[in-house]
Fold this protein.
Amino acid sequence: MNQHVTLYTVGCRLNQSETAVLADRLTGMGYRKVAYGEPTDVLIVNTCTVTDSAEADCRRVIRRTLRHSPQAFVAVTGCYAQTGVAILQNIPGVDLVLGNQYKMLLPDYVQKLSRMHKRAVPLIRHSGVIDRDDFVQDGVGAYSTTRANVKIQDGCNFMCAFCLIPFARGRERSRLIEDAIREAEHLVERGHRELVLTGVNIGQFSNGSAGLLDLIRRLEPIPGLARIRISSIEPTTIPDALLDYMRTSGKLCHFLHVPLQSGDDAVLSAMNRRYSVREYVAWVERAVRMIPDLCVGTDVLVGFPGETEHQFAETCRVIQDLPLAYAHVFSYSARPGTQAVRTGHPVPPSPTIKARNHRITQLSRAKRMQFYRQFLDQERLVLFESMDREKMFWTGMTDNFIRVGVSHSSRLANQIRPVRLTGTTEHMVLGHVMDATPSQPRKPSIPVLPSYEPAAGVTCP
Ligand code: SF4
């Protein structure tokens, strides 16, 4: 009988893309994938180290699985396996710890080791600094979702003061273009119509003289591919040429997620971020002027050591005034080994950080609603994903990241349909499908939008 394998991912889209490739390889080797929580023979945890709670989540998953499957072979890989090997190797029941450099070899290790008895001490494969050259990544990700990720880059050289990623994932390096295109073509053959380009710092993608825009130009002609989406990208790595291309492209989504982190120059400087508030503001305003229906989302880090109430209020003000569609908020978590831990004066933990987190969350909700309302009474193309069976209610996304829900009696999964947007709920925009013919990819068109008004209803301290 086939052995059962459970794959559990903690953390970012890049981890998800790697887990998807591992899953595909393991099922190709004869393992049967089972959901987390079901009895299993092998547990693979692709870990994250970005916060204390991400690390705790990894340990919890191992403990819970061993409770119902005490004989399961437990393999741990990813960023926490890179930075926290001393902790992980002492967790009872862990059989294998693979640092990031060995992650994609995991199926071979599992195949060799999991059929033996559980190990008395875990096998560790781990190397210090990861600074390999550009890479290929064999295989094709297995996704149950409509959208699929394509890893194009790894590592980061920016060394932001709060971030452990350069230690966990090493120096920046890029996937060879031909190899990225190979996986993209296979994913489209498998039915994925939207691909999300992922990496740690994807604006730094480079293959010889080719950059991110060249890669996108090479991906666009893939027959059957309707949308290319860029995942999180650093503000200093977005050339005007990319925005220009996005403006007229029929496939590159009008979407950018650009971390702000703080709206105060002194905090940005202490964080080692490479831009000022004024530069960030000018960039967002220019981008939205060029592409009026652009969805720009951001990340904010609250409670960075030394952040005062006034500096936090400045962050709120910047978010409130800018045409941002949403803000993901993260509470600062001291990461051993980072510059912030060595030099900063901590902000008192709860309730201050909690209150700041809550304030940005509220502000983000108001921004999202405000963004959604701009598009009411317009027609947008929606790529449908899933259905609530009882209500025959389908949801999907526009290219500019508006979640849309429609009531429809026939199957819409993985179809792109024009939808007239008619109203909003707390979480999405409602609408109705305009016709029954499968639509073409978005034609280049720039809708006329009402001028931007800062978010009302949520005020800053
Ligand atoms: S840009 Fe900064 S925050 Fe992002 S991965 Fe690199 S070091 Fe971390």
Notes: Residues 156, 158-160, 163, 165-166, 200-201, 234 surround iron/sulfur cluster (CB under 6 Å). Residues 438-451, 456-461 have pLDDT under 50 and may be disordered. Residues 137-231 form a domain with the Transcription Regulator spoIIAA fold (CATH 3.30.750.210).
